[in-house]
């Protein structure tokens, strides 16, 4: 059975949301990305740790976050959020907090949130410092996992989406299993 999962990318403009998708889906990196180009979402199938195929539908923005924020329709009813900040611009971590507040306001069901520190290839400081910043963030908000990545080198990118796939709900399949298990049992019970 294939499970569908809607994933949305959130974060300040230029933190690398599009670059992360491109690295994951096409294993490519471009220094100059045109924010107006591109489909609204990309799909990629990935096997999760239970052996189920999860079809990730990864939603990007076409630069709307630069101007007036995003329509709440974009992130409403999503299963997971990839919340990206840029380690070379600390203010983008503050922006990430604003995105979470918006998310809390707009959605009834809070999705799984992965906090992603991008562009670690450009960072000369101590990686412990990044870990501390992310840990503080995780204590303040309910974050599934915090990851350090580089869309440029590719490090950490797979981990983002594998974590999401591993968490994807398989409600229908579980219901199916209950039926499969219960029917032979009740038949057996009636017989004897
Ligand atoms: N060195 C480096 N540059 C990056 C990385 N990720 C994105 N960029 C660059 O940062 C700029 C903004 O990236 P983009 O994906 O368009 O950001 P978005 O606005 O969040 O979608 C582009 O010039 C990218 O090439 C990274 O991990 N390392
Ligand atoms: Mg973009």
Automatic annotation (TrEMBL):
Pfam families: Ras (PF00071). SUPFAM superfamilies: P-loop containing nucleoside triphosphate hydrolases. Keywords: Nucleotide-binding. InterPro entries: P-loop_NTPase, Small_GTP-bd, Small_GTPase. One of its GO terms (molecular function) is GTPase activity. It comes from the Eukaryota. This is Rab11. It comes from Hexamita inflata. The lineage of its organism: Eukaryota, Metamonada, Diplomonadida, Hexamitidae, Hexamitinae.
């Amino acid at each position: 059975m294939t499970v569908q999962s809607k994933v949305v990318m959130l974060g300040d403009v230029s933190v690398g949301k599009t670059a992360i998708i491109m690295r994951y889906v096409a294993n490519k990196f471009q220094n100059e990305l045109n924010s107006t180009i591109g489909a609204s979402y990309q799909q990629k199938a990935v096997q999760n740790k239970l052996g189920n195929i999860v079809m990730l539908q990864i939603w990007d923005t076409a630069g709307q976050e630069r101007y007036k924020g995003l329509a709440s329709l974009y992130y409403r009813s999503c299963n997971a959020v990839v919340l990206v900040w840029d380690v070379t611009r600390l203010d983008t971590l503050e922006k990430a907090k604003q995105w979470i507040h918006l998310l809390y306001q707009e959605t009834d069901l809070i999705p799984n949130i992965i906090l992603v520190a991008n562009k670690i290839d450009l960072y000369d400081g101590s990686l412990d410092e990044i870990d501390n910043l992310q840990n503080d963030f995780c204590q303040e908000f309910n974050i599934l996992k915090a990851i350090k990545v580089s869309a440029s080198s590719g490090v950490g990118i797979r981990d983002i989406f594998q974590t999401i796939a591993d968490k994807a709900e398989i409600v229908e399949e579980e219901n199916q299993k209950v039926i499969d298990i219960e029917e032979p049992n009740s038949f057996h019970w009636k017989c004897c």
